[in-house]
Input
Amino acid sequence: MLASRHPQLNKHGELIHLLTLEGLPRDVIHHILDTASTFLSVHEREVKKVPLLRGKSVFNLFFENSTRTRTTFEIAAKRLSADVINLDIARSSTAKGETLLDTIANLSAMHADMFVVRHGESGAPFLIAQHCAPHVHVVNAGDGRHAHPTQGLLDMYTIRHYKKDFSGLTVAIIGDIVHSRVARSDIHALSILGVPEIRGVGPKTLVPGDLAPMGVHVYHDLADGIRDADVIIMLRLQNERMTGAMLPSAGEYFKTFGLTPEKLQLAKPDCIVMHPGPINRGVEIDSAVADGTHSVILPQVTFGIAVRMAVMSIIAGNEA
Amino acid sequence: MLASRHPQLNKHGELIHLLTLEGLPRDVIHHILDTASTFLSVHEREVKKVPLLRGKSVFNLFFENSTRTRTTFEIAAKRLSADVINLDIARSSTAKGETLLDTIANLSAMHADMFVVRHGESGAPFLIAQHCAPHVHVVNAGDGRHAHPTQGLLDMYTIRHYKKDFSGLTVAIIGDIVHSRVARSDIHALSILGVPEIRGVGPKTLVPGDLAPMGVHVYHDLADGIRDADVIIMLRLQNERMTGAMLPSAGEYFKTFGLTPEKLQLAKPDCIVMHPGPINRGVEIDSAVADGTHSVILPQVTFGIAVRMAVMSIIAGNEA
Amino acid sequence: MLASRHPQLNKHGELIHLLTLEGLPRDVIHHILDTASTFLSVHEREVKKVPLLRGKSVFNLFFENSTRTRTTFEIAAKRLSADVINLDIARSSTAKGETLLDTIANLSAMHADMFVVRHGESGAPFLIAQHCAPHVHVVNAGDGRHAHPTQGLLDMYTIRHYKKDFSGLTVAIIGDIVHSRVARSDIHALSILGVPEIRGVGPKTLVPGDLAPMGVHVYHDLADGIRDADVIIMLRLQNERMTGAMLPSAGEYFKTFGLTPEKLQLAKPDCIVMHPGPINRGVEIDSAVADGTHSVILPQVTFGIAVRMAVMSIIAGNEA
Output
């Protein structure tokens, strides 16, 4: 039963898909991060390629458009020497009324080895993993408001890189938590890795009060929320939310929850500031912080390629 | 004269372009199918690549959008180790008023080795083959209502795979024959390969009565048409036709010409059901049939990659 | 100061970006053309690839759509064995309000090796080169009305190929000079390479009278302008200009400035006719000229691939 709900591990407990970080054993996460670490040095080489996925076909299935995320997976797959096929799903057979599972069955019949799936509906990558052929591996590249596990993993990589140990950390996640699959994946991972203090910080409309079951302490005041934090994870404020009734103006939001150098002084002196990008300068984050010495936003991007290479090579090496 | 109208064979009778199945010698077709058979095993390997087109540039020129067909050619070319260039023709120079032949001359001058052409106008791939540089090979990936020769070949591969011999078969093609380039290519191939009984089945608006010159027996009643058939080829019902005056509703169509398990019982017990995809469940085919034991729809997709690899490698190896 | 305004040369005078031909030393240009010459033979080989950029990631950043130019760079990069990533910028993060420099910083953090940039704003590739990480190389693929240096270089390659020596040539550039980045790049290069007579030919609205500072003699009469020319460079007449107030009809333009076989007789008997493409037959050029014996329009395309391979391999080999 558990296996059918979380079909990402085979009977030996090895990762065959990456669908969510929820319920993933701690040692599986560390194994991914350790593997990513070996790939980081690949970037420094003259020839930035390893042959681990040579002759494999990786399909980017982006039902929801995201050039940036697709690009990171495309680079990761090509550095593993895979053949990458980008499917422009919006213009393809699904538009002709084909069902999702028929599309997947067809692509599997082309001897696809891996699907990287971004979908607006929560759970779509699960559905695909449950129904695809046994030789196919699925990576969730973001589904609805549910999960964005590779972003969660690269965030964990970043924290481990700068802080070494998770066991004494205070991590503040700031912004639109209720709509954020990044926040959800981060919270699961932080809790699995043993972070003792996870905080959710933002206005009541974006940070509901009932996050205790997830082990998150809620703060509606930025100063309180970031006090003595070791790690600050800013979330992107979606423009479409701001124009809705949920929030006042971008300027108002910045005044209350935007991260400025002054507010940052409340955190630990060696704290790091993270952001999944793309950043809204002057909305959720001040340029002086985004470009400042605490910011690790660009290293996150670099780590993200290595983490995706790690995920893809690990799941491709395990059998269903 | 013949050579200029069907410029797909060189003076030694070797295939240099694939434009249509009409008039293709039987042994050329069997040679393609035999070659495809050797490529099928490539899919099973760890490294699914052969170096036959290494360093060759294959251009996908899709003047008419078709993500699925383009993808099959892209995979086939990459598994042959070619460099693949996808041209977004709708947004390119043709939109700036450049003529088709100027576009082709330009791409040839970039030392293209192969053009895979999908075009809304019947005959466009012929025009290209007649005017392109001698080092360039052309594959017709579907032109107007005229031909879809690689689909025809993969259908023949499928039939040969399951039925071994063409000489005693009854094949029923069901649906919108009048608008279908798939049907046209299938009919040519079946007749070249010696199938004694080819049937066209559908309403009068979609299956004209005068198909006798093509060697096709027309049936306007589904039960009569599939009786004792060895092979059933369903055609996709284009939604745009249904909303026109030609047909009643999708529900009506299904009642009369949709393939259900009950109707399928009229065919031979070991008959196979084929469909070029994407399928319209509940319109031309019942899910119980599409997913049933007679269905070979997904094997068709697998064979399609191997057949396209065969066509590309064969024509690239022959000189004009 | 000069270095910061023209950051394309390192302190050893080696090319690390290609942003403009203005101010480029003559020997650097000849080095590029010599290198391109060695790549021309690559096209003739069975395997049209060299491993010079193996494992490098080349990003095509086309902020302004140009399928043809993007394709030439994609082919050039793939023949150098690079991994090519095409970014659909119009649909990506910039659309989400990210700044140009944040986009560039992000892509650099993915360990990009080269950006090929087409942008509607003059100077955008300079801005990128000034701010990107030291390991990244930038090629200007056309910026606003400013420069199109690889087109300029392929034009110089073409002239050198057919005329051997620049020192005695008369070169007439005909058409919409005021809006043309191609004309600007050509004029800089011709003047650096020592062409004694550079002419700008066209109506007053498109060829201003004050081109003397650039060393260009202005002609508003086609017959005068092409008399005794060794080289004629036709420019494309943009349709959007014709519909504006600047010009009469396409037919009117052709009567006055269209290149016909009759007018071509005024030029030297061995003159060559060039055009950056795509051509407007019957607008700026008569088909009899475009397809005639003086036309070198298609060789330009072939040379263009080799020149882009040369530029990419040279800058990738030099350190900032």
Q: What stands out?
A: The beta strands of chain B are 57-62, 83-87, 114-119, 137-143, 170-174, 197-201, 216-219, 231-234, 272-274. The radius of gyration of chain B is 19 Å.
